[in-house]
Amino acid sequence: MNTAKDKIVVVEDILLDYKEAGRDKLIPILQKVQEHHGYLSKESVTKISKHLNLPVSKIYGVATFYNQFRFKPKGKYHILVCRGTACHVKGSLDVLGTLINMLNIEPGQTSRDELFSLEVVACIGACGLAPLICINEEFHGNVNSDKIEALIENIRKEEN
User: Fold this and answer.
1) Alpha carbons 89 and 71: distance in angstroms, whole number
2) Which of 65, 103, 108, 141 lies at a 20 to 30 A Cα distance from 49?
């Protein structure tokens, strides 16, 4: 029920709050659209472009500059991999590699079945649990490749 048409209607509703807006309101508009949809679709960017009288390329330029904006929906299971200093020292690069191999996606991508998305973050702020990942806001500390494989396999079993 969350069709492309429904999403455009929501974008139009958001833009009503910014009737006389200029480029200075681009980021708040992008934030609100993403808050409602979880990402910025091509259609929503085009609609914003027309409303603000800005080229689509300018909007993508701004949105890609900030890590907060996404152009694809998150997976049902959104995985954050901490790459902060403590996590790095304790092996988060191996954890990330395991996830990339198991999910067949790179950071910033969503799996074809839209079950998983993967994101790398600078620090989650729980260094005592390093290395750490977060799946849908649930923390998993002291992870290694074996624990990651078990977590992902359990999720896949639950989904089948």
Assistant:
1) 31
2) 108
Domain tally, the chain: 2
My answer on whether 13 and 46 are in the same domain is: yes
Task: State pTM to two decimals.
Answer: 0.76
- Are 81 and 44 found together in one domain? no
Indicate the DSSP class of residue 138.
E
Residue with the two structure tokens 């020292």: 89
Name the strand (E) or helix (H) holding 140: strand 138-140
- pLDDT tens string, the chain, 160 residues long: the values are 455 555 667 888 999 998 888 889 999 999 999 998 889 999 999 999 999 999 999 999 999 998 789 898 899 999 999 999 999 999 999 999 999 999 999 998 999 999 999 999 999 999 999 999 999 999 999 999 999 999 999 999 999 8
Stated length of the chain: 160
Q: What is the DSSP string of 74-120?
A: PPSEEEEEE-SHHHHHTTHHHHHHHHHHHHT--TT-B-TTSSEEEEE
Q: Which of 18, 44, 65 marks a domain boundary?
A: 65
